[in-house]
Design a protein that fits this description.
Oligomer: single chain
Number of strands: 15
CATH architecture: 3-Layer(aba) Sandwich
Number of domains: 1
Radius of gyration: 19 Å
Strand content: 15-25%
Shape: globular
CATH topology: Rossmann fold
Number of helices: 11
Strand order of the largest sheet: 5-2-1-6-7-8-13
Length: about 300
């Protein structure tokens, strides 16, 4: 088996490439850069073939996928800067919607499966009921709208598709909430963190395992995927991060989303019903507390070896 993985310079693409390597499956990485380093943030990524590709260029996409002769595409590339998306709607649409459609059309022409990663932002973020995979789109802002458009493109053009909606993502490669909080704890003794947005985090290392499991199956469809465990707020998550990392001397103040005042609207309700994973015979991701402990241990080890 051989898969093309887009967005390998990001958190998820990095871990998917390594998971493929662990299983002896060939992965061909792609991203915008002409070349790709074998080490990111102090951790190695599997040394595999790499091809530069701009997903917004339909001819480039078709050429790379056809020449790569792959058995499927794992599409990790995306615009994920939620606040900045409000300032650049046309560019974000081009990446998240048009870029995804370009890949989807080639996958269908070649009759190969495609995996696309979406978000809880495709819903309106209200209520307390966990979102079901079949719930209707009511996207929040530019980011959510363009990710929903990407989903529609996949469903329209690809018969063999996986759509995985994920939330609160963290991984070794790149920026994320955990790294930000730990960095701020070194320079601040008081932090304000939102307490009215509820969900569960997703560790890309754990997600990558499920991704490869799914790609080796024909159990296509839309799945909600985060780590298992109780639903929490960003405030709760911050307290858990500091406790796990042994951070002391920092007070954390819970605030509302309105008080915090981010540029783009965030979902209050990011609860996701993950039961379809188990129902279709896949192993759910571990509890987020377990994932957090493993992740913090890796960060500390990398810091010690830096």
């Amino acid at each position: 088996m051989r898969y093309l993985v887009t967005g390998v310079a990001g958190q998820l693409g990095h871990d998917v490439m390594n998971e493929l390597a662990r299983r002896g499956i060939e992965g061909i990485g792609s991203d915008l850069k002409e070349t790709y380093s074998g080490v990111q943030d102090g951790t190695p990524v599997a040394v595999m073939p790499y091809k530069a590709m701009d997903i917004t260029d339909a001819e480039w996409v078709e050429r790379v996928i056809r020449e790569s002769d792959v058995d499927g595409v794992i599409h990790c590339a995306a615009w994920t800067a939620v606040d900045k998306a409000e300032e650049l709607p046309e560019l974000v649409h081009k990446i998240n919607a048009v870029g995804t459609e370009n890949i989807a059309k080639v996958c269908e022409a070649l009759d190969i499966p495609m995996m696309y990663f979406s978000t809880d932002y495709v819903f309106n973020g209200n209520g307390t009921r966990p979102w079901e995979p079949e719930d209707r789109y009511e996207p929040l802002g530019v980011y959510g709208k363009t990710k929903a458009e990407g989903e529609l493109a996949v469903k329209e053009h690809v018969k063999k598709f996986f759509i995985l909606r994920i939330a609160w993502v963290f991984g070794i490669n790149g920026k994320n909430f955990i790294k930000t909080m730990l960095s701020l704890s070194r320079t601040h003794d008081h932090l304000r963190v939102v307490s009215d947005q509820i969900g569960t985090p997703t560790y890309t290392y754990d997600l990558a395992r499920l991704v490869v499991d799914m790609m080796g199956s024909d159990r296509y469809g839309i799945y909600h995927v985060t780590n298992e465990g109780d639903y929490i707020s960003w405030y709760d998550f911050t307290l858990a991060i500091f406790e796990t990392a042994g951070v002391t001397g920092v007070t954390v103040e819970p605030v509302t989303s309105e008080e915090y005042g981010a540029a783009a609207k965030r979902p209050y309700n990011s609860r996701m019903n993950r039961s379809k994973i188990r129902e279709n015979g896949f192993e759910p991701l571990p509890d987020w507390k377990d994932a957090l402990a493993r992740y913090v241990a890796i960060l500390k080890e990398n810091e010690k070896n830096a």
